[in-house]
Design goal:
single chain; 106 residues; alpha+beta; three-stranded antiparallel sheet
Length: 106
């Protein structure tokens, strides 16, 4: 999973992940990119959804290996799963970010 240094530093400093942050997960199968998952936070983005489907200000999208949007993927499933992490800013990686001591590549 990839993100920005700003997001890592915000989490380490106990601050919210800033708007404009992307988290990117590249799904490899048999050594090839199968799909890419992107989760992006934008100010006020959650307002378009019913309260029971909101994941804060996060939006989700799957992409094909060529970078085009994969419309066959159901992003409501992403929202459903991530909604269980509301106390972790809807992230499964929050604790890992707090502990990250690796090299940051800009």
């Amino acid at each position: 999973i990839m993100t920005t240094n700003e997001a890592i530093q915000a989490v380490k400093n106990g601050q919210p992940v800033p708007a404009g942050t992307h988290f990117v997960l590249v799904d490899y199968r048999d050594g090839e990119i199968y799909r890419t998952f992107v989760m992006e936070k934008g100010s006020g983005w959650g307002g378009d959804y019913d309260e029971d489907r909101r994941t804060g200000d996060w939006q989700f999208q799957w992409f094909k290996p060529d970078g085009s949007v994969n419309m066959a993927e159901n992003t409501a499933r992403c929202q459903s799963c991530h909604s269980s992490r509301a106390d972790e800013d809807f992230l499964y990686t929050l604790d890992g970010l707090k502990e990250f001591n690796g090299a940051v590549i800009d």
